[in-house]
Write a structure and sequence with these properties.
Blueprint: E1 2-8, E2 11-17, H1 21-31, H2 60-66, H3 77-82, H4 85-90, E3 99-100, E4 104-105, E5 129-133, H5 139-146, E6 150-155, H6 178-190, E7 196-199, H7 207-210, E8 213-219, H8 228-238, E9 239-251, E10 260-262, E11 272-274, H9 276-285, E12 290-297, E13 305-312
Parallel strand pairs: 5-6, 5-8, 6-7, 8-9
Antiparallel strand pairs: 1-2, 3-4, 9-13, 10-11, 12-13
């Protein structure tokens, strides 16, 4: 410890100064607002409402969606195929409303039939190779086939492939969603369809093994993805030069500019809700050279607004 002495007109005082004090004073002076460059402003942070969330809550969506079904196992494939069509339909859960022969209509959670005329789908897809990415029960895949397309329907290999938040407990399955798989097979068989079903995670879509497509479709998927731009880039790579991608997804009409609301996948597996500008910008940034919004819509039973976009490489 050093000593500093001061004298004035015969009076004096000696002060003992700790060795670290001068350095501490200099450091404090450097942090002082008075020494900040002109224009720099410091503020105390506002109240923070972010918190650590329980990843187990993210699985509520799955359990609630299937809670009525887990107690009634689906018959094996041979037994199911031998049942009358109406009984087959009643034996599983349906995401899509699909019209089947004999005036049988599947009780889908979502009925797209009223909005099909507003999707700007070419009247004829004859001679075109088509992809329905994330096809679920196959409503759109079968519609493209009805219009003459040679269709590949792509869906995830298992529920475990969904984009759950980090730390979500294992769902105890690495097999396809048995209800969605059974529903697709029932509709496929009843319609005499030739749609090829490929089990593939969207993040691994690759033209090297899937080829490219003249007409590509993906709907209601981006909001459920941790990395939506990565999947859009994959979709772009699968779209043939001169081809077209039809992309539909959720947007929030109250958001402005190119903003996006982050949800993190903890409720209904929703990660993001973009503004319309942001949604279109994502498609452009995936590589598409022209993106046109053909319509926006909302329908009863489905939360939010959706935009239908036609994108060209």
């Amino acid at each position: 410890m050093s000593v500093r002495a001061i004298t004035y007109r015969g009076f004096g005082v000696a002060v003992r100064i700790p060795e670290r004090l001068p350095a501490a004073v200099r450091a404090l002076a450097r942090r002082s607002p008075a020494t900040l460059p002109q224009g720099v402003e410091l503020r105390a942070p506002p109240p923070i409402f972010a918190r650590r969330r329980d990843p187990a809550n993210a699985t509520v969506f799955v359990s609630s969606f299937y809670e009525d079904d887990r107690s009634r196992p689906i018959p094996d494939a041979a037994t199911l195929a031998a049942m009358p069509l109406a009984e087959q339909v009643a034996a599983t859960r349906w995401y899509h409303t699909i019209e089947l022969p004999g005036q049988v209509v599947t009780p889908g959670a979502f009925d797209h039939r009223p909005v099909v005329p507003h999707y700007s789908i070419p009247q004829s897809l004859a001679g075109k190779r088509c992809l329905d990415a994330a096809c679920s029960n196959g409503f759109w895949a079968f519609e493209f086939e009805r219009r003459g397309g040679d269709v590949v329907g792509l869906d995830i290999p298992s529920i475990a492939d969904w984009d759950f938040p980090a730390g979500t407990p294992s769902l105890g399955t690495t097999t396809p969603d048995e209800f969605a798989a059974a529903a697709f097979e029932i509709a496929h068989r009843a319609l005499g369809s030739r749609v090829e079903l490929v089990r593939r995670n969207l993040y691994t879509m690759d033209p090297d093994d899937l080829g490219t497509f003249d007409f590509v479709h993906m709907a209601d998927v981006l909001l459920h993805l941790r990395n939506p731009l990565d999947v859009l880039r994959r979709l772009y790579a699968l779209t043939s030069p001169g081809g077209e991608a039809l992309i539909t997804d959720v947007f929030d009409p109250e958001l402005t500019d190119r903003s996006m609301r982050y949800s993190g996948g903890f409720e209904n597996l929703i990660w993001w809700t973009p503004s319309l500008d942001c949604l279109v910008q994502l498609v452009y940034d995936a590589g598409f050279s022209q993106v046109d919004v053909t319509t926006t819509y909302s329908i009863p039973g489905r939360a939010g607004w959706r935009a239908v976009m036609r994108a060209h490489p």
